[in-house]
Amino acid sequence: MDSSNTQDCDNDRPYREEFKKPLEEIKEDIFFRADNFEGEAWYDDLMLYMRIGVCQPEPEHIPELQKALKIMGYPTHVSENKEKPYLVPGDSCKPQKKEKSR
């Protein structure tokens, strides 16, 4: 397959331009459908996350999968369990400062 076919394939995917942005700049698109991502290596992980709210994708797929999920309206963060990365709902948990007691 030559590079011109690859570019044509990428042009058929409306989210490729959005994927060039950092995760923080990506906005939800309420009209975007999950099947637009069909054919991606991480598509099954996307569908699993949408069904049960967690998935364990290949580490190299995490950035694109997080962007896809954010477009679909699912903000995620990476959490590790037994040194394996998982995508879980919401923004990452940051420890809150404890107020000093008087």
Helix-strand blueprint:
Blueprint: H1 3-11, H2 16-19, H3 43-52, H4 62-71, E1 76-81, E2 84-89
Antiparallel strand pairs: 1-2
Describe the protein in words.
The protein is an alpha+beta fold. 32% of the residues lie in helices and 12% in strands. The chain contains four helices and two strands; from the N terminus they run H-H-H-H-E-E. The protein has a two-stranded antiparallel ribbon. A hairpin with a 2-residue loop joins strand 1 and strand 2. The N terminus is likely disordered.
Core attributes:
32% helix; 102 residues; 12% strand; two-stranded antiparallel ribbon; alpha+beta
Describe, in short, the structure shown.
The chain has 102 residues and is an alpha+beta fold. The protein contains 4 helices and 2 strands; from the N terminus they run ααααββ.
Taking strands numbered 1, 2, ... along the chain, how are they ordered across the largest sheet?
Answer: 1-2
Helical content stands at 25-40%
Principal-axes shape call: globular
Largest sheet descriptor: 2 strands, antiparallel
Give the amount of beta strand, in percent.
5-15%
Number of strands: 2
Mean pLDDT: 84
Structural class: alpha+beta
Distance between the termini: 70 Å
Query: Which residues form runs of ≥5 with pLDDT under 50?
Result: 1-8
- The figure for the number of domains is 1
The Cα radius of gyration reads 16 Å
What is the string of helix and strand elements? HHHHEE
Please give the count of helices.
Answer: 4
